[in-house]
């Protein structure tokens, strides 16, 4: 019962906060609601017993990525930003498409099947701790995807450096 | 009585209430004692700096000026609370609360002595990093919401400084995590006690050095106190704050110092334990309670903070960034590679 209540609270809060993020006129307020949203997401991970993912969610998304968002937003001209329209003119089209997708998901809910219970049960994770279990899986079973992801990130870093270098030269 | 409650609420509810009660009691004890420590840390700082500058420091309030922090607190509490006319009020109110609360929340995962910790979680070290990144929001929000140039510049500087040095802090601790094989702070301390040198500061000297320098920047202390550089920015991000809201920033900063010193103590200096070779040599030392060793190490590091503050001039902003990105982060990365190599090679030998 308590579990369902927790999940209901977190999912309702996440939906409400996402709506708040996109409807605020002031972009700094949007970022602040997004910060709260990230903490709720971390809470949901914690609730699933994935404490490592929860901590990484806060450190990486709230601690690094959102700070960079805030950086950009702080440098905007707020007086102009408050006057501009919040949504593009073709938003009804996106609304119809999203409503269609939502209908599809709801109609497929009846055929929802629970997956088979694997090795990583709650008891296993409690004994091994989430961090150890995740590390073992990442570096054995999913080594190739993990390395590919790191290579993609490396390419992005090098790309950012190349772009920044070129701009310095053109000045 | 217990039976009576169980029939009303639910079986096991009394145990649950007792559990919650014990946790609340622990929280109150930790917060009150930590805030008293913070209050006397300001007194300690003023005395130490005064002696270093051939002054005497506070001495009027109470014996040896010991009541000075309380006098300051009472004074700040009764000051007028001024809010700039164009300030963004909700964010202006929230900023000091977020800053102070994130500092206090960090206290909950610190083991002060064997077995005494409010929340003994598996990811204690990551939790501390997460809370310190939340603290950066308090500073940025304060800078932005004040609607003042000084505060805004201070907030921007602080944000870029904190996210740069957070990387260095996180990477410098990876060596410790590799050696201890755990993110739980109690486990890290026990791993150090079982290690021949008794503390990780000796094999992890590189990580320890990086951590100490980055901790100065992370808590906005001299020589990296650019977010609140008096000569350029008045007081930086909290220029427009007064009264008790200012006090919250002030307390948050000192709590941050206490936490950084505690992390260094727990991860590098062996926490509440002392090396086994010392207790073998002088057995009577093993009767000293662990909290004494913990506090002695923390206060030594706090003293280093003040020592550095009264010794070094402030760095320029580009120098600050260069130290962070071009010196500390590569050193911390090299430390991770070295530690990993040594650990995997020594495993191969066994």
What would your notes on this structure say?
- The complex is a heterodimer of chains A (171) and B (350).
- With 171 residues, chain A is mostly helical.
- Chain A is 80% helix and 0% strand.
- The N and C termini of chain A lie far apart (64 Å).
- Chain B has two domains: 1-78; 86-349, no CATH class.
- The longest helix of chain B is centred in the N-terminal third of the chain and has 40 residues, at 13-52.
- The interface between A and B is medium-sized, with 23 and 26 residues.
What is the CATH topology classification name of the domain at 1-86 in chain A?
A: Four Helix Bundle (Hemerythrin (Met), subunit A)
Largest interface: A-B, 23 and 26 residues
Oligomer state of the chains in this structure: heterodimer
Q: What is the number of E strands of chain B?
A: 0
The tally of strands of chain A reads: 0
Query: What is the CATH class of the domain at 1-86 in chain A?
Result: Mainly Alpha
Radius of gyration of chain B: 22 Å
CATH homology superfamily of the domain at 1-86 in chain A: NADH-ubiquinone/plastoquinone oxidoreductase chain 6, subunit NuoJ
Residue share in helix of chain B: 55-70%
The secondary-structure element order of chain B is: HHHHHHHHHHHHH
Q: Uncertain spans of chain B, ≥5 residues at pLDDT below 50?
A: none
Total tally of structural domains of chain B: 2
Element pattern of chain A in H and E: HHHHHHHH
- Mean model confidence by pLDDT of chain A: 84
């Amino acid at each position: 019962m308590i579990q369902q209540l927790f999940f209901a609270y977190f999912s309702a809060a996440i939906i409400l906060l996402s709506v708040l993020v996109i409807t605020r006129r002031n972009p700094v307020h949007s970022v602040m609601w997004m910060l709260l949203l990230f903490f709720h997401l971390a809470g949901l991970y914690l609730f699933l017993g994935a404490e490592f993912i929860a901590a990484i969610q806060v450190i990486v998304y709230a601690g690094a990525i959102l700070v960079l968002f805030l950086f950009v937003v702080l440098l905007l001209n707020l007086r102009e930003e408050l006057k501009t329209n919040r949504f593009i003119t073709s938003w009804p089209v996106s609304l119809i498409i999203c409503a269609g997708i939502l209908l599809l998901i709801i109609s497929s809910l009846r055929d929802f099947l629970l997956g088979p219970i694997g090795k990583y049960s709650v008891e296993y994770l409690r004994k091994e701790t989430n961090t150890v279990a995740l590390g073992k899986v990442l570096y054995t079973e999913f080594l190739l995807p993990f390395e590919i992801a790191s290579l993609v990130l490396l390419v992005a870093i090098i790309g950012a450096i190349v772009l920044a270098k070129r701009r310095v030269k053109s000045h | 009585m217990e039976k009576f409650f169980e029939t009303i609420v639910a079986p096991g509810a009394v145990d649950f209430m007792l559990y919650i009660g014990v946790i609340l009691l622990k929280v109150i004890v930790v917060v009150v004692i930590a805030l008293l420590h913070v209050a006397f840390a300001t007194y300690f700082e003023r005395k130490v700096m005064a002696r270093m500058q051939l002054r005497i420091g506070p001495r009027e309030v109470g014996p040896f000026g010991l009541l000075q922090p309380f006098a300051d607190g009472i004074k700040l509490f009764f000051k007028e609370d001024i809010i700039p006319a164009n300030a963004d009020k909700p964010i202006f109110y929230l900023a000091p609360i977020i800053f102070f609360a994130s500092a206090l929340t960090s206290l909950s995962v610190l083991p002060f002595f064997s077995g005494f910790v409010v929340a003994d979680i598996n990811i204690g070290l990551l939790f501390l990093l997460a809370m310190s990144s939340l603290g950066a929001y308090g500073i940025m929000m304060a800078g932005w919401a004040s609607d003042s140039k000084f505060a805004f510049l201070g907030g921007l500087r602080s944000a870029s400084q904190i996210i740069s040095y957070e990387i260095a802090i996180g990477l410098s601790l990876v060596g410790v995590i590799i050696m201890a094989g755990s993110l739980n702070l109690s486990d890290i301390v026990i791993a150090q006690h079982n290690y021949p040198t008794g503390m990780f500061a000796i094999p992890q000297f590189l990580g320890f050095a990086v951590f100490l320098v980055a901790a100065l920047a992370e808590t906005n202390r001299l020589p990296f106190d650019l977010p609140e550089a008096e000569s350029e920015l008045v007081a930086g991000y909290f220029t427009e704050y007064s009264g008790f809201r200012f006090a919250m920033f002030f307390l948050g900063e000192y709590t941050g110092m206490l936490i950084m010193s505690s992390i260094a103590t727990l991860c590098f200096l062996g926490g509440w334990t002392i090396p086994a070779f010392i207790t073998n040599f002088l057995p009577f030392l093993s009767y000293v309670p662990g909290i004494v060793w913990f506090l002695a190490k923390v206060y030594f590091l706090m003293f280093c903070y003040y020592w550095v503050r009264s010794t070094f001039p402030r760095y320029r902003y580009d120098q600050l960034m260069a130290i962070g990105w071009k010196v500390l982060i590569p050193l911390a990365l090299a430390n991770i590679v070295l530690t990993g190599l040594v650990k995997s090679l020594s495993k191969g030998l066994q």
